[in-house]
């Protein structure tokens, strides 16, 4: 086990489709050295019948990093988990919380909460295939089934299969009638369900997710639970994470300033563009594929709008020059003292 994998999951950044790709995770790692990072959900079909390297390649600097899998066939999940371990991930996470129609058609994601015995079989198959940790991310209920007993029994069944870590998105998943976005906002949050799970299963690692935006909220949850997973707030306001290493991991090494974060990303971007840049047929990596994840870096500062506008300038992005990051910061001239 590497030193990275011994770090606690006190704070983590949620798997978010179309957002938490390797470039986003590399950016987040410049802000926090210790928070656990999760991939976007990768389906077993994509790994077993698609381009494995495209889906699993990541940067060594991302550790600790977890691979989230989507699927419901124990054998396929076991093979996919093995691939994840071979590629060097620190954890395999099973998605039992996504409510999208695409996931429902595949009979996995939040649908799996209605089949705890199948989830237990999936977890056992993965644990038999790998030596790294296998965890589960789930909701507290599905549709109008919202009693605490439901999620308690789900967790109890999966725990018997050897899963020790549960990431609880403390809302129901409404499988019909709500979009994925609405499912993140409309069903009421019930953090008390996560708290009760920890009381009922004190030996398990219970991590809460859903609607968490401030360090005050994080501190409150950590009085009751083992960890907190941030979602959209970590993406839209990433510099919130700059205090996490000292606050939650007792690491007193200074956090990078916003300017230092930008400086650290420039050689990474240049390297990625050199390796995977535009091809003759118009494919390949574009500067915007990386900079789009950085638009929120100046959130809350005067001049943040000018920063975002510069990073979104299609003409400048087409030039493929990572110095655009410095130009974006320079447009914040009145507040450069705050970011330098």
From TrEMBL:
What's its catalytic activity? Answer: 5,6-dihydrouridine(20) in tRNA + NAD(+) = uridine(20) in tRNA + NADH + H(+); 5,6-dihydrouridine(20a) in tRNA + NAD(+) = uridine(20a) in tRNA + NADH + H(+); 5,6-dihydrouridine(20) in tRNA + NADP(+) = uridine(20) in tRNA + NADPH + H(+); 5,6-dihydrouridine(20a) in tRNA + NADP(+) = uridine(20a) in tRNA + NADPH + H(+)
Origin: domain of life: Bacteria
Which residue positions hold the site described Interacts with tRNA?
95, 181, 184, 305, 308
Residues in a coiled coil are none
Quote the catalytic residue positions: 98
Supply the source organism for this entry.
Noviherbaspirillum album
The record describes the protein's role as: Catalyzes the synthesis of 5,6-dihydrouridine (D), a modified base found in the D-loop of most tRNAs, via the reduction of the C5-C6 double bond in target uridines. Specifically modifies U20 and U20a in tRNAs.
Cofactor(s) needed, names only, are: FMN
Q: Could you tell me the keywords of this UniProt record? A: Flavoprotein, FMN, NADP, Oxidoreductase, RNA-binding, tRNA processing, tRNA-binding
Where does the chain bind FMN? 15-17, 68, 137, 169, 209-211, 231-232
InterPro entries given in the database record: Aldolase_TIM (IPR013785), DUS-like_FMN-bd (IPR035587), DUS_fam (IPR001269), DusA (IPR004653), tRNA_hU_synthase_CS (IPR018517)
Q: Which Pfam families match?
A: Dus
Domain DUS-like FMN-binding, chain residue ranges per copy: 13-324
List the protein's name. Answer: tRNA-dihydrouridine(20/20a) synthase
Q: Which CDD domains does the annotation name? A: DUS_like_FMN (cd02801)
């Amino acid at each position: 086990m590497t030193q990275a994998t011994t770090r606690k999951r006190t704070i983590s950044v949620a798997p978010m489709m179309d957002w938490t790709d390797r470039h986003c995770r590399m950016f987040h790692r410049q802000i926090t050295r210790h928070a656990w990072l999760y991939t976007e959900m990768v389906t077993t079909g994509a790994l077993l019948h698609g381009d494995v390297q495209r889906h699993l390649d990541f940067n060594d600097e991302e550790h600790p990093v977890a691979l989230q899998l989507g699927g419901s066939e124990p054998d396929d999940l076991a093979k996919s988990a093995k691939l994840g371990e071979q590629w060097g991930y620190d954890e395999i996470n099973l998605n039992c919380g996504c409510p999208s129609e695409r996931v429902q058609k595949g009979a996995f994601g939040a649908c799996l909460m209605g089949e705890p015995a199948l989830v237990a079989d999936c977890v056992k198959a993965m644990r038999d295939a790998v030596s790294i940790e296998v965890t589960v991310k789930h909701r507290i209920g599905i549709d109008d089934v919202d009693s605490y007993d439901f999620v308690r029994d789900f967790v109890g069944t999966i725990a018997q299969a050897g899963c020790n870590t549960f990431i609880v998105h403390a809302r129901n998943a409404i499988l019909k009638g709500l979009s994925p976005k609405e499912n993140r906002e409309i069903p009421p949050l019930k953090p008390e369900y996560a708290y009760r799970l920890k009381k009922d299963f004190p030996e398990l690692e219970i991590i809460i997710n859903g609607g968490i935006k401030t360090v005050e909220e994080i501190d409150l949850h950590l009085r009751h639970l083992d960890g907190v997973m941030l979602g959209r707030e970590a993406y839209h306001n990433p510099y919130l994470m700059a205090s996490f290493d000292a606050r939650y991991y007792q690491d007193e090494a200074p956090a990078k300033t916003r300017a230092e974060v930008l400086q650290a990303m420039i050689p990474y971007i240049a390297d990625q563009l050199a390796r995977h840049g535009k091809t003759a047929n118009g494919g390949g990596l574009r500067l915007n594929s990386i900079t789009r994840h950085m638009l929120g870096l100046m959130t809350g500062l005067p001049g943040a709008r000018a920063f975002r506008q510069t990073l979104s300038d299609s003409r400048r992005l087409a030039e493929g020059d990572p110095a655009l990051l410095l130009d974006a910061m320079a447009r914040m001239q009145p507040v450069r003292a705050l970011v330098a």
